[in-house]
Amino acid sequence: MLLRWIEGIPYFDLTQYAPAGIINRIAENIQWILKGLAHTAKKPLFSFSNDFIDSLLETSERIYFGVPREALQIMRLRIQGIHRRRALNLSRAGYHDIDSLLEASIDDLKGVEDIADVLALRIKENVEQYIENMVLRNKAIQVRLATKMGKNTDSILGLYDTHGDDLSNHIVELLRDELKIDADFVGKKDQHGPDIIIHTAEGIIAIEVKRCEKGRVSAIESEEILGKGAKYKPIANVTIGYPDFVEVAKQSAMNSKVTLLTVPMLGELLTRFWAGNVKTDGILALLKSGKPCYDIDPKYLKQG
């Protein structure tokens, strides 16, 4: 029954097993058990792989919502009026993640079965608000940590509140003054070059800074650094993005070897550096990693 439930089979076709209310109750109990197993699988009790743990957590969510993997991101948004059936309709129409919903027009969404005018507008507003809330939550946490450690909160606020060259210059100041990394802003000198270069003993790290006011940094934008930084023959290419990168950019970066670092992640690196949990060498190793940085890998915390 649960297998058919997470495949998105309609309630009507599941009544051979149990009434809708009982199906929901069973699903809630099983997802709770799976979530508990996922936490038990972690250290210190056990040390199962992160992939295995993530699989358990994803399956627990799918059982809770009763949707296939393709509709899971929509359900996570918890948009008022988007229940299981509508999430499945959106997914079947090709709208199965934040990026596709951001790119869709109101008229596009209205073309989906059971999505009327008001709901189409609410979806757009909710997706944009979801991204903004994620950023604001990170900002608030990092400002609180900076205050607790007696650090200047302007270092954090500048990451979230500045734009254009001001943001690039602010990042250079953080790299130099706070993280003790030899960095220069070069964006003004060459419009066809990178925004920032870092000097290391092995060579130059080229960095491009991208900020999107609505939506997320695209795959094309995330890889512009490959052309802009080429003349420096860098040992690593980095794109720092605000607020985040689209999923396609993250997948593409694994092949292009561009390190993707979000502004909120840079803020987290800064607070961890202040706390003594990460050293300069570890940050440089992360910048040279050539892959998307979803979180701070423990191996970088141990360096330096």
In which order are the strands of the major sheet placed?
1-2-3-4-5
> What structural class do the secondary elements suggest?
alpha/beta
Low-confidence stretches: none
Number of strands: 5
Share of helical residues: 55-70%
Average pLDDT: 92
Taken in chain order, the helices and strands follow as HHHHHHHHHHHEEEHHEHEHHH
Per CATH, the class of the largest domain reads Alpha Beta
Large-scale geometry: globular
Q: What is the count of distinct domains?
A: 2
For the sheet with most strands, the description reads: 5 strands, mixed
From the 3D coordinates, which CATH architecture of the largest domain would you assign? 3-Layer(aba) Sandwich
The CATH topology of the largest domain corresponds to: Trna Endonuclease, Chain: A, domain 1
Explain briefly what this protein structure is.
It contains 17 helices and 5 strands. It is α/β, with parallel strands linked by helices and 304 residues long.
Structure write-up:
With 304 residues, the chain is α/β, with parallel strands linked by helices. It folds into 2 domains: 2-127, no CATH class; 149-301, Trna Endonuclease, Chain: A, domain 1, CATH 3.40.1350. The protein is 55% helix and 9% strand. The chain has 17 helices and 5 strands. It has helices spanning 2-6, 11-14, 20-40, 50-65, 72-76, 84-92, 98-103, 106-110, 117-148, 154-161, 164-178, 219-222, 225-228, 247-256, 263-274, 280-287, 298-301; strands at 183-185, 196-199, 204-211, 236-242, 258-262. The protein has a 5-stranded mixed β-sheet. Strand 2 (196-199) and strand 3 (204-211) form a beta hairpin. The mean pLDDT is 92.
